[in-house]
Design a protein that fits this description.
The complex is a heterodimer of chains A (272) and B (223).
Chain A lengths: L19 H12 L3 E5 L3 E7 L13 E5 L2 E7 L1 H22 L5 H14 L11 E9 L2 E7 L5 E3 L2 E4 L3 H11 L8 H16 L9 E7 L2 E5 L2 H13 L8 H21 L6
Antiparallel strand pairs in A: 1-2, 1-8, 2-9, 3-4, 4-5, 5-6, 6-7, 9-10
Helix pairs in contact in A: 4-5, 4-7
Chain B lengths: L16 E6 L3 E7 L2 E3 L2 E4 L5 E5 L2 E7 L1 H22 L5 H14 L7 E8 L5 E6 L5 E4 L1 E5 L2 H12 L18 H18 L6 E8 L2 E8 L4
Helix pairs in contact in B: 1-2, 3-4
Classes of the chains: A alpha+beta (272), B alpha+beta (223).
């Protein structure tokens, strides 16, 4: 990105009406390893790529259980993500204590967004450098939200964030129309296909990805490695090419990066 | 000048009795289901037992509003523990948490007389007994509440080791079988119901063992 005289602190506007510190925080999200989410009418699946610093270290935890009916996947500064997950858990527990019922997901994401907004309007703070995919179930059904560092949030049928997420997004854009009626297992398979897209040729195994599910009658849980590997083996054996346009997606992903930079000149990313 | 007395008390006693017995590989937690105030009965079907964790059940008599608040606080704290440690709290850990929570309100106590029962990390039965401000002790059996004074001497007779001075030290947990312990509990409650006006209606029994949790209910005299 570009360095200029209006990006020193978050409380300085640029002449074009942008807050560069917030945009830089969104960059941090794009640098993190990929996380994707997709939902049907009854289930929401979160999946993420686990990259460890070296072969000797364990990988970062990127998916957190927030409550029985809510889970979150993060991309970006994982420490910020951990702190926000703790906040979300605390909010769910307090709501449950007061109202003896689960916190509606829509309420939680608004609280999260407001918390992020505060950091964009205080000179002694910095924006959270993490994007959150919040998956949850409430009375109005299954939901998937994306919370940005800017304080904006959107609801999605399916979404991907982090590095090389464009490849996953392209796959999801092709398939999303059938997600609403998908079964739980098909949804998980699609999540794994989307993750495979972001790996750009690297072999998909359960040691590089984490998958979590929440659904009607199913509390949020992270699937164990053996189960995930089993699912991967199933579709690799059957030779399913969920990402049939893998080569096209790779080329399309490259073009999209440059297209994205050109777009920034016209409209600030957070307005989209 | 003689001290003025309050014309209102923040506390009420809803009566009832709670008992727990620890076995070699099981634990029995029981409480009657009568809730009263003064000489009146509020309901005949109120549960005084709360599941705090997979292997920890708490039975509390006293002021049920305080008991309910205490149960909620402990449940929330357990949720936090599970998020942080990715596992359930052990019964001895829950016992310490309960003690700390009670002492936290040392100067405006929870009017709750608790008995915590469960399985420890070795699978042996454990029972912890408390006063209202958190003083606690691990024991082989305990009774709390309005019928405690009637039940405890009977349990001492049936379960207590001959003398703490005898060597080798006899284990606190009873050698009785699960079925014998359940029967003993039912006998305790039938007897207490006879003479304690605040105990009766029915007794709710929870049995915890390696296989899981079981519920039993036995009717008691309604007078």
């Amino acid at each position: 990105m570009f360095r200029n005289q209006y990006d020193t602190d978050v409380t300085t506007w640029s002449p074009a009406g942008r807050l560069f510190q917030v945009e830089y925080a969104m960059e941090a999200v794009k640098q993190g390893s990929a996380a994707i989410g997709l939902r049907s009418k009854t289930h929401v699946v979160l999946a993420c790529v686990n990259k460890s610093n070296s072969e000797l270290s364990s990988h970062q935890k990127k998916i957190f259980k927030v409550d029985d009916h809510i889970g979150v996947a993060i991309a970006g500064l994982t420490a910020d993500g951990r702190v926000l997950s703790r906040y979300m858990r605390s909010e769910c527990i307090n709501y449950g204590y007061t109202y003896e019922s689960p916190l509606p997901v829509g309420r939680l994401v608004v609280q999260l967004a407001d918390k992020a907004q505060v950091c964009t309007q205080r000179s002694w703070k910095r924006p959270y450098g993490v994007g959150l995919l919040v998956a949850g179930l409430d009375e109005s059904g299954a939901h998937l939200y994306y919370n940005c560092p800017s304080g904006n949030y959107f609801e999605y049928q399916a979404f991907a964030i982090g590095s090389r997420s464009q490849a996953a997004k392209t796959y999801l854009e092709r398939k999303f129309e059938k997600f609403t009626e998908s079964s739980r297992d098909d949804l998980i398979k699609d999540a794994l296909f989307a993750i495979r897209e972001t790996l750009q040729g690297e072999k998909l195994t359960s040691s590089v990805c984490t998958v979590a599910v929440v659904g009607v009658g199913e509390a949020f849980s992270i699937l164990d490695q053996a189960t995930v590997q089993g699912l991967i083996n199933e579709f690799e054996v059957s030779g399913e090419e969920g990402g049939a346009a893998a080569a096209v997606a790779g080329g399309g992903g490259g073009a999209a990066e440059e297209g994205g930079a050109a777009v920034e000149q016209e409209a600030a990313p957070m307005d989209i | 000048m003689p001290k003025e007395h309050a014309n209102w008390s923040p506390y009420d006693n809803n009566g009832g009795t709670c008992v727990a017995i620890a076995g070699a590989d099981y634990c029995v937690i029981a409480a009657d289901t009568r809730m009263s105030t003064g000489y009146s009965i509020l309901t005949r079907e109120y549960s005084k037992i709360c599941k705090l964790a997979d292997k920890s059940f708490m039975a509390s008599s006293g002021f049920q509003a305080d008991v309910k608040a205490l149960q909620k606080v402990l449940s929330s704290r357990h949720l936090i523990y599970q998020h942080q440690h990715n596992k359930q709290m052990s019964c001895p850990a829950m016992a310490q948490l309960l003690s700390n929570t009670l002492y936290y309100k040392r100067f405006f106590p929870y009017y709750a007389f608790n008995v915590l029962g469960g399985l420890d990390s070795e699978g042996k039965g454990c029972v912890f007994t408390y006063d209202a401000v958190g003083s606690y002790e691990r024991v082989g059996y305990s009774a709390q509440g309005s019928g405690a004074t009637l039940i405890t001497p009977f349990l001492d007779n049936q379960l207590k080791s001959p003398s703490p001075l005898l060597l080798p030290a006899k284990d606190a947990v009873t050698p009785l079988s699960e079925a014998e312990a359940i029967d003993l509990v039912k006998t305790c409650f039938s007897s207490a119901t006879e003479r304690d006006i605040y105990t009766g209606d029915s007794v709710e029994i929870i049995i915890l063992n390696a296989k899981g949790v079981r519920h039993e209910s036995e009717p008691l005299r309604k007078d």
